[in-house]
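Fresh eyes needed here. Kindly weigh in on this sequence plus structure tokens:
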Amino acid sequence: MLELPVGTQQFFDRILTNDMMPGAYDGVSQDEITRGVAQAIDITRGIKEHLPSLVATAHPEYEDQPDTREKADKEVSYVTLKAVGFCGLLAAGQIEDTELIKNDVYGICMMYLADQAVDNNDEHMSLSLETLYGLRQPHPDDHPYMAAHMTLPLRIPHYLRNAVLPDDLPRVRVCFEDQVLMNEVRHHRASEELLRIGENPTAVRAFWENRGDDIAEMITVMAGFPSVSHSLHAAHRRDNPALRLPALQEIDDQPELIRMLRISNVLVRLLDDAGDSDTDWGNDPERGIFCINWLNQARQAGIRLIEPLMRLGEIPQAAQQGLTEVLMDFGNPDQAAHKQEMRDHIARFALTHAQNTMDALPVKVKSKYGQYIQYAKRVHIIGQENIEGDKALGKA
């Protein structure tokens, strides 16, 4: 059996024993937990064995570099913990067929790898995603590398097809492709536009006046909360038909659940942006390029970015002033010494608001869609982990 690094084992244990979201693991037996860990280890081994070659094939530019395998291994290592810990492990052994979870996790890996390439300023990947998802037309002068890069996102439907039932597949693909990857590249282009504007106050003000609502919606949706909750629920539904779990079409038709997912996306976005705030300034190209971050840009954008957050996240009136103060101070260099305090404030607020949102669901919704809500609660648990930042998690 694969020997997990101590940090990874501790991370897995934290996820599966966490009680910050009451009810997240209700009804899960110790045998199921044991099976879930074994599945996670098996899937981790498979990723480490098979994905580096896929990454190398998708990046022919690596061929000119002597450390090709090392680069591919590094990319896979970076996404492995998140894909397994933030998706497969959350099944908690309740999905017996490991192949279903494995294919879901592999689909998540493809999504993360494409997303990561865009974050690392891989223009070939950005153009590939824009072409694949209809944001631009193919051009005769397109670089041949684009076709190779496209092999990663093109594998997403293949893996998902082997994880969920046919009637759920289109809705899971929307989560992965439309909500996350399409918005990721749109977010990248908006960040490039803001960076080009520079310090011109009139142009900056006009940018946020014109784009504030759109960008707030974009970065909320691309948080990708349903990519995990939808795909796990759909895999569970395929694994155990006797449970008669509702199809995703029915889930998506419930206004109370859609509201819960919108608020959840806002909360995990805040946590993710708090964790990656230093990286997202783009001051260290080895870690990533500049990209718009709710906490970094709130001071610059003001009400144009803060008001949509309050609205989309349905932030309670009593919490708005404190959260606004944190948002306005977070990107202020003079407040750098207080960043950890501000992160702690965001984490506490996000947890409380998530708990209250779940508690407020009508009894009939909790009863009929209990399994889906359980998965949502587990996603909130890993959202709290995400405040440590992607790079910190990658070292576990």
Observations:
- The chain has one domain: 6-394.
